[in-house]
Amino acid sequence: MLKVERPSIYPTSLQSKRTYNRLNEPVVKTTSYTQIFTSPGNMESLRRGVQRLGLVLKNGQRIANKAAVRQSSTLPRCKEIIGNNGERIISSFYEDVEIPSVTIPEYIWQNVNKWAKRTAVECGITGRKYTYAQARDNANYIARSLRKMGLREGDVVALILPNLPESPISFLGILEAGCIVTTVNPMYTVDEVSRQLHASAAKAVITSAEIAENVLKAAKATLPPNSPVIVVDDGFQSAPDGTIRFQDILTKGKTLPQVPEKCRQSQDIAVLPFSSGTTGLPKGVMLTHYNLISNIAMTEGSCDVLSVPDGFQDVVPIVLPLFHIYGMNGVMLPRLTAGSKLITLPKFTPESYIKTLANNKCTLLYCVPPIVLFFGAHPLVKTEYFENVRCLISGAAPLAASDVERVQEKFKTAETLRFLQGYGLTECSPVSFFEMSNKKFSSIGHPISRCDVRLVDPITGSDVLTPGQTGEIWIKGPHVMLGYLNNEEATREVLQNGWLKTGDIAYFDDDFSFFITDRLKELIKVKGFQVPPAELEAVLRTHPAIADAAVIGVPDPRSGEVPKAFVTLKKNQTSTAEEIQNFVIGKVSEYKELKGGVAFVESIPRNPSGKILRMQLKNLS
Question: What is the pTM of this model?
Answer without folding.
Answer: 0.78
